[in-house]
Specification:
Layout lengths: L1 H17 L11 E10 L4 E11 L2 E10 L5 E11 L1 H4 L5 E14 L8 E13 L4 E10 L3 E9 L1
Antiparallel strand pairs: 1-2, 1-8, 2-3, 3-4, 4-5, 5-6, 6-7, 7-8
């Protein structure tokens, strides 16, 4: 039994030692993100696209609004740095952090005032196939919020 445990331990250690982090998107690829969120202004839905401008950097945009009354609309651009290669995680996972800048448009002044929105965020993805994954992102800046949804590589 000790020999089997030792062999399994050696296989696991060598797998992690020789694994190389791979970018979830290569330069020129893109992915679509969509889902639900948590925000100070209600329960939002969001849609976004990311384009890989470098193996570790994506730029993109998001569009979001709330489901409970359509009181606001947010249009934002974002840039993310993906840490896969420098921390050595496989490409079915994606760990990133970035910045977003955009504009909030409120249709009801009791919910807030329209204006610029800026945030810092951190997120992660788990891809269960070559094309589909789950996305979780948390951020703060002009307000705190989070997103949970699906990612589709294109």
């Amino acid at each position: 039994m000790k020999k089997i445990t030792l062999i399994l331990a050696l296989v696991m250690v060598s797998t992690f030692a020789f694994s190389q982090g791979v970018a979830p998107l290569s330069k020129g690829q893109k992915q679509m993100n969509f889902g639900l969120g948590l925000d100070h202004g209600g329960l939002p839905v969001y849609f976004g696209m990311d384009w890989a401008v470098h193996n570790d950097i994506t730029v993109g945009g998001t569009l979001s609004t709330n489901l409970d009354g359509f009181h606001w609309l947010r249009i934002a651009g974002k840039g993310d740095y993906h840490f896969n290669r420098i921390i050595g995680i496989p490409n079915n996972f994606d760990f990133y952090a970035g910045v977003g800048v955009g504009f909030n448009l409120y249709f009801n002044s009791s919910n807030g005032s329209s204006g610029l929105h800026a945030d810092l965020h951190v997120g992660g993805r788990w891809f269960w196939s070559e094309k589909w994954g789950l996305n979780l992102e948390l951020g703060g800046g002009s307000g705190f919020g989070g997103l949970f949804g699906l990612t589709m590589k294109m």
